[in-house]
Amino acid sequence: MPKPRTKRQAIREERKRKRREKAFAAEEASHATKRQRLEEEGDTAKNEDATFEDGYEQRVPGGAPGADREFFGMLSDEEQEYFRSVDEQLDIDDFPSQEERELYLTGVFTEAQGKELKLACSQSCSRLMERLILMSNTRQKKKLFEQFAGHFLNLIQHRFASHCCETLFLQSAPIVTRELGGERDDLPDDTEEKPLPYMEELFLLTLDELEGRLGFLVTDKFASHALRVLLIILSGRPLEQPSTKSLMHSKKKERIAAPWMTSSQSELSSQLRPVPASFTLAAKKIIDDSTKGMSATELRVLATHPTGNPVLQLFLELDIALSSESEGESGEMTLLWRLLPGAPATLKDATTEASDFVNNMMYDAIGSRLLEVLITRCPGKIFKALWKHVFADRIHSLLRNDIASYPAIQVLNRLSKEDLVDAVKKTLPEIPKLISLSRFNVVKTLFERCQVRQVSAEIDTLTKALLDAYGSDARSLIPKLCLLESGESEEEKEPEPFAKNRSALVSHGSHLATTLLAIPGSPRRAIQTSLSSLPEELLIQLATASAPTSHVLADALSTPSHDKILHKTLVAALRPRAFELAKSEHGSRVLSAVIATPSRGDGISLPFHFKETIMEQLGQHEQELRESFEGRRVWRNWKGDLWRNRRSEWVAWAKEVDSAPNPAAASSGQKQLRGQQQPRAQQQPRGQEPSGQQPRRRQPRGQQQPTGQPPRGHQPRAPRGFQSGANAIKVGDNDRKRKRIIEGAA
User: Fold this and answer.
1) Are residues 125 and 273 in the same domain?
2) 279 & 300 share domain
3) What pLDDT is stored for residue 19 in this prediction?
4) Of 163, 221, 183, which is closest to residue 47 (Cα–Cα)?
């Protein structure tokens, strides 16, 4: 007789059953080919939260409760196969015309009707939904809003559907601006059909769904991105600026592009957008509702949270911008005053809450980003107190720190001329240390601000300190800043941390070299001296190693120099490897800068025969150049087709002779004077002028040309049969003989 089941055994069997059911459900969900969606937010592994298989983020114990999860169903095998083929077709984009593409899209939207939520939450088809949103018209976008209505709170927290919501918000933002100006392109063709609401109303209805849940959405792994997008749209900021994109998306964000985009759409996305007053009020309400229930400690925790920090940055930036008009209202409690209570007076004491917040954020890898925004955007009275009581006495030590240097750089960007001179004097003894730590961005900022504030004495002092850090040898500047190596053996011996950060160091060093080139005087001379002393191999390495290093060489070719042979020396070293540069991704940029260098100029001159020799090399490899994108770009910039077909015109263009006539016009004019035949309908009988015109005849020598007639040099040759003279008449051969006989008899 078997033993009776105990309670513990029953629990174990129940757990096994649940695991089997979960594994079976996962196997059914992954029956189709799945694409891996790139993770949002470049967090470190230790900060990444677990995710359920349904695409929602897993809540940690004690976290804010989320909404009830909705399940919208799954697509059938046939539907997934159809939509996958649609995605491939739209990606190829081989439609013969725009009308054909629109007809195809209309059919796809008809097929997807009622399945929009399934598509958005599908791992394999959410990309298609994003592409459809990018290609849709205004009416289709508004219908998608209506389909998503009531589910936005769940959709923006979903791993895949959140991408679709962000794309829908971004693509609908320009429509709000157009409708604000009275333009509507979504009116129904059928008069009995009910018109769709304004896009402004659809956005406000979406915000109503999220009201009351903003506190925990700020730190949600997926919803925080959608919240940032909504704030950017409500504020009217440009959608395509790099600073805006970095706030909305992570570096790992998957880019899905439409095959075409109208110029009006790109213009509205790249500039400030007028927004209705309701959007401004909604942005203020979001900031207030998200932070009003947080204490000072919770705000500090949010400032150091990997996901919450970017949202708090945007909150602070918009809060300062929107509250600037009501700055005089002392009763209004803004986010800035909550972060720095009692400022600027409380910043005098290092023990106050405001000073403690600044000091803690300064050395935190995540919190320092919020401090950068605070320093950049805060009012002048706050910044002056920050400089005087927090940064002034220790600016030189902060610039040495790998984290605190970034807020300190933002401080340098706002300093006045007198304060900048004081900061430079304190930092001068630290220049060798900064160079040894590869703090090239700090040195670059010092040079840039001194140039802007026009303190030439400090520029010369900084240049001398920079040269002293490299052994007072200007020739070593470029190899050290751009990390040029003469052999591969030294590179292999580099320590692993240095090898990982090499690209960042090369970028910072190259930017410093470019900055020095742009400053006349000793900084420019030092860089040009270093460039002129580089051997051919290092110049080729500089041109082809990376984009920042190639910019150094390209800028050097367009910068005036007191050394008259500098540009000739650089091009002479690059000339034998012209074809190699043309095929290189970065070297092609340098080769395009060579042809843009003027043949005669003030401080810039490159003899024509240098360009001609390079063009002959490129002409020998024309077919190979046309096979690559870089080669085609070089061939186009050098006007290779003009060189091959009309050599004289290419020579005139390459020499840049301003007084030379237009080659095309001169060529066509010469051909016409050489007797180029007119069309048959325009030909006139020989010896006759076109109707309504008198024949043009040469004037006898010594006679003044009548007023109103063209100059003699511009007259066409007289037709055969005419003679020179005021009373010239047409005569034949017999008339000439008869005339000679009569004259001889006389």
Assistant:
1) yes
2) no
3) 64
4) 221
Same-domain status, 299 and 160: no
**DSSP alpha helices (H): ranges in 113-222?**
116-121, 126-135, 138-148, 152-155, 161-180, 199-210, 214-217
User: What would the pLDDT profile of 432-456 be if each residue is shown by its tens digit?
Assistant: 999 999 999 999 999 999 999 999 9
Name the residue range of residue 313's domain: 294-400
The DSSP code for 51 is B
CATH number for the domain spanning 233: value is: 1.25.10.10
Question: Cα–Cα distance between 41 and 220 in angstroms, integer?
Answer: 11
Render pLDDT for 710-727 as a digit per residue (tens, 0 to 9).
444 444 444 444 344 444
Q: Which residues of 30-67 are buried (b: 16+ CB within 10 A; e: fewer)?
A: eebeeeeeebbbeeeeeeeeeeeeebbbeeeeeeeebe
Residue type, 392: A
What average pLDDT does this structure show over 631-658? 88
Please tell me whether residues 272 and 334 are part of one structural domain. Answer: no
Locate the DSSP E strands across 348-484: none
Phi-psi category of residue 379: left, alpha or beta, with phi > 0 → left and psi -120 to 50 → alpha: beta
**What is the average pLDDT score of the chain?**
79
Q: Is 518 exposed, middle or buried, given 0-12, 13-18 or 19+ CB atoms closer than 10 A? A: middle
* Per-residue confidence (pLDDT) for residue 696, from 0 to 100: 43
Task: Decide if 103 is inside a domain.
Answer: yes
302 shares a domain with 233: no
Domains of the chain: total = 2
Question: What are the start-end ranges of the H helices in 6-125?
Answer: 7-29, 77-92, 98-112, 116-121
Furthest-apart CA pair in the chain: how many Å? 163
Listed range (385-389, 506-510, 533-537, 736-740) with the worst mean pLDDT: 736-740
- Whether the CA torsion 632, 634, 637, 641 is positive or negative: it is negative
Same domain, 229 and 313: no
Alpha helices in 586-693 (DSSP H): 587-596, 608-620, 622-625, 629-637, 640-645, 647-655, 663-673
Over range 470-486, report the average pLDDT.
88
What's the confidence (pLDDT) of residue 266? 56
Same domain, 121 and 226: yes
- Whole-number percent of the chain with pLDDT over 70: 71
- Rounded CA-CA distance 398/375 in Å is 15
For residue 421, what are the CA distances in angstroms to 152, 456, 496? 54, 11, 38
Using one digit for the tens of pLDDT, what is the confidence trace for 20-51? 666 555 555 544 433 344 333 344 333 444 44
Question: Higher model confidence: residue 331 or residue 465?
Answer: 465
Residue among 566, 665, 577, 559 nearest 613 (CA): 577
Residue 455 · residue 412 · CB < 8 Å:
no
Instruction: Please tell me the predicted confidence (pLDDT) of residue 508.
Output: 94
d(CA 389, CA 412): 15
